Amino acid sequence: MNKQLNRITLLCATACVMLCGYRTIPKMQNIQIGIRQLPASAVTVSEIQSPESTTAPQTETEIRETSGTEPELFAPPVQPKNHDYIINIESDGSKAMWHARLYQETKSGSGGEIVDRHFGSLSSTVFFDLPNGGQVRNTTSWNNSELLEESKKMPLLDLKTDGTPMVLIYHTHTTESYVSPKTGNYDADCTFRSTEPDKNMVMVGDAIAEQLAAAGIGVVHARELHDYPVWTGAYANSAVTVQNILAQYPSICIALDIHRDAISDGDTVIAPVTEIDGRQAAQIMIISGCDDGTMGMPNYRENFHFACRLQETAETMFPGFTRPILFDYRKYNQELTTGSLLIEVGSQGNTLEEARYAGELVGRSLSETIRLLASPPQ
Length: 378
Description:
It is built from 8 helices and 16 strands. By secondary structure, the chain is of the alpha/beta class. The protein has 2 domains: 2-67, no CATH class; 77-373, Zn-dependent exopeptidases (Aminopeptidase, 3-Layer(aba) Sandwich), CATH 3.40.630.40.
């Protein structure tokens, strides 16, 4: 009798927990444009903060209590374009968080100024010019003249333009975002982060993928959220994604981790910009890691060879589009495959439109680089 009573009690307790869990998790599939009406009993989960993250309100409940108003919602994120040469990968768990951290438009400008700045060629002992355009910023023990000779070598990549998956695009800091519209200032509580894929780095990755596919180049786009709800450990999370995709698509030769930079001077945020074909675009910066002998990147020079080809092609096609390649003792998962680079697309001060346009230009530059390096189609 006691055993039966214990089983009944346990079943009742389990049912209560499941019911409570169901009632306190807001459904996300029926989000409408405008203001969300949260149930009074809803409990939202706060983002776990890291030393590098902001202390601004992280949940809808906190935003409402702080500002007195509900956060503005946008239309549901635009689905990626279907294309035979694009493979989009995202877990159901990641998709379920699309509206967990809403994009907030700048309103008051209480945080400070945003200043546009074009970063041109630089002259100092750490910079040198590439023969066909662009520069390298060398902060390693490599001698500039030796590294210049290294930069002229062709990457050993088995590239094709027949739709075979060649490129992996992913985002370690997926939630990094930008401002919109272009007001010249930002709010004090602006986090420059969002889980909405048409307003964070996924948007830029989609733009790159579309250009690659249009050129006949197969691309896998990992649209996974790697830095939410916990920001720390994002590189370990993205490494798992990259390893799984490389195992599934062994033809991939290039892996690009697409980020945006953070550039500021006190309260002033700097937006790196350039004008291409009459439109303003965010400037990009390629980071190619160097191994000091302790980092487990024996093939880092292959990454650098590819970085230089992409830099030269981008500058040939779109003069002024790039900032110097950063060649430094950094890893960023670049040991996982040759052709691994991190690309910073603008900064937190650029607009969504400038960043997306920059993604399009990266895609076009990358397509041309691959075409020039590719093996003849079989």
